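INPUT
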Amino acid sequence: MKETGRSGCPINLTLEILGDRWSLIVLRDIMFGNRRHYRELLAKSDEGIASNILADRLKRLLENGLISRRDDASHKQKGIYSLTEMGISLVPVFAAMADWGRRFLPVTPEMSIRAEILAEGGPALWQKFMDELRFLHLDAPRPARSVLDELTEAYRCAVERKRTAEAEPEVA
Amino acid sequence: MKETGRSGCPINLTLEILGDRWSLIVLRDIMFGNRRHYRELLAKSDEGIASNILADRLKRLLENGLISRRDDASHKQKGIYSLTEMGISLVPVFAAMADWGRRFLPVTPEMSIRAEILAEGGPALWQKFMDELRFLHLDAPRPARSVLDELTEAYRCAVERKRTAEAEPEVA
DNA sequence: CCAACTGCTTGCAAATCGCAAGCAGTTTGA
DNA sequence: TCAAACTGCTTGCGATTTGCAAGCAGTTGG
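OUTPUT
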């Protein structure tokens, strides 16, 4: 509900919707963490988003068409948030941002493994990932390959590797 | 100078630096508009950034290593802002964001022509553009082709086309 | 029937934003 | 030579946004 009469530049319009500290974090958790409920997004966030901010961002993302919301059949109070095609189409943006971040910022190895895979896979892998997201969030047919599983598994392994690496040196 | 103890995720760290309404706007004007002085960035901005915000963002971008500043030999008060390699490396991020914006948001045709060219050119064109930025902002040798000139010219033509299109229908 | 869980709201202090005005020093043009 | 325009940037101040904690009505499971 903002009418900040600014320019029709694609970068500017994108920033008017996504240019804050939390919108892309929420979308990232929905997209890569497959978190679909409010509480999941609230509690399992690595960054600890505040509940009122989360509610506000979900509302704005809904209004702007990046996500949709439907009721959960298994629980009358639960809502399920899904990515729309508009939200799914952000995959290349995430891939570019993540690749830039891992190259120039002090990222941790576990958190950057998925960025690395996406960067190496290139647009072809992004397409496969988007196909999978269409299956998970829209009603598209299930694709043959699960990129999300691969990303999640790679992350899990990286965390595991880190934990063992932290535990063993004490013996030496 | 923020210590908001958040996660080591590349997306998160990127947002901690660039996740606001103005940082990327400033970088966009330096990169695509070749605006190198404070006043240029202040006055020629399509979005009308406030002077204190601009000063703050330039400071933060400097601190974070995205741009550098040197004195202008021709004017004792002028400073020249340049992109660093870190800033130049944002080209793919801009290309992805601009392409997404032009596909899903109400952009104006003139403002999206450059996004279109960058999207069609793909990574190969981005590399050439980055080479040119290295020439303009760092001390790299001049590349054979000027992508910036091509982008600027395409934009100029789009504006021209729009103006004539607005002027002629009155006769009909 | 109660404890845990659901999505989300409210209050409030602190930080940030956006606008307007201003400022000391520099350059330009008549 | 001197005033006007320009330089990068700061200051004040009201309005908005943020972040934190607590709470709330309704739902579910044991």
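end of record. Residues 134 and 140 of chain B are 5 Å apart (CA to CA).
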